[in-house]
Amino acid sequence: MTSIPPETLAELEAEITARHKTLSKRLRQVAHFMIERPKEVAFGTVAIIARDADVPPSTLVRFANAFGFQGFSDMQKLFRAKLVEETPSYNERVRLARKHSQTSQHTSPMELLEEFTTSNMVAMEQLIKEVNTNDLEKAVSIIYCAQATHIVGFRRSFVVACYFAYALRHIDQRAFLIDGVGGLYREQATTLSKNDALIAISFKPYATETQDTIMSKPNGVPLIVITDSQLSPLTQYADVCFVVKEAEVRSFRSLTASLCLAQTIAIGLAYRVEEELNGSSQ
């Protein structure tokens, strides 16, 4: 049991991630619920949260105790404090983005456009708040120092992986897409050298092909991960990890924030290359 409880939600999330493998099955179930549905944890009662997380109420108390809190309400204060930091306009825009999906039986294409646009603006604002400056700089440095960069992403993530490879090639970087044609993704991963880098993108449900690719890469190859949860199976292998919360409208999940992040890293690399060239020519 942790003797000193975390003081912020960010600290709690970091500790949950670090201890995730050591938790019991029930406590891991609670951990996933806490990470993925923080607003419900902030506002819900023990009974309601336990029902939605599909665990007994006593498990929530055990979870809080395991991280040093005297009771569940003490831990819940961290979730509420985080919400206080968010502006009212942020919450209002989320409400507006969901309004039509809850009340309208017939929706026009323009109404759908409004829903998706509003939800994606919220996700983009969240991206700015959540991405760490040092992580961005480290990701750019990893790709800059690599002889070649290999990118993998299957299913929904494939779009982001394709764009990443496209963007890097357009700034004259050696980039290779691991597309798994013929089921040869493991074989493609073995072409990496120790001086290369790997970018892996995966969202729930996490593609086993992406995980297998990571496990097949040579030791020492740095890994940049883009995923949707701190409890993603990819995070434990990452040298740099970006957790991106995408917009979701009517059960359709967007890729706008992930593509924006990929573009930022690629263009950031382009500026880094230009600065180094200008510096060496002076």
Automatic annotation (TrEMBL):
| Superkingdom field | Bacteria
Name the InterPro entries on file: Homeodomain-like_sf, HTH_RpiR, RpiR-like, RpiR-like_SIS, SIS_dom, SIS_dom_sf, WH-like_DNA-bd_sf
User: Which residue numbers delimit the HTH rpiR-type domain?
Assistant: 10-86
**Keywords noted in UniProt:** DNA-binding, Transcription, Transcription regulation
What's the protein name? Answer: MurR/RpiR family transcriptional regulator
The record lists the organism as Zooshikella harenae
The upper taxonomy is: Bacteria, Pseudomonadati, Pseudomonadota, Gammaproteobacteria, Oceanospirillales
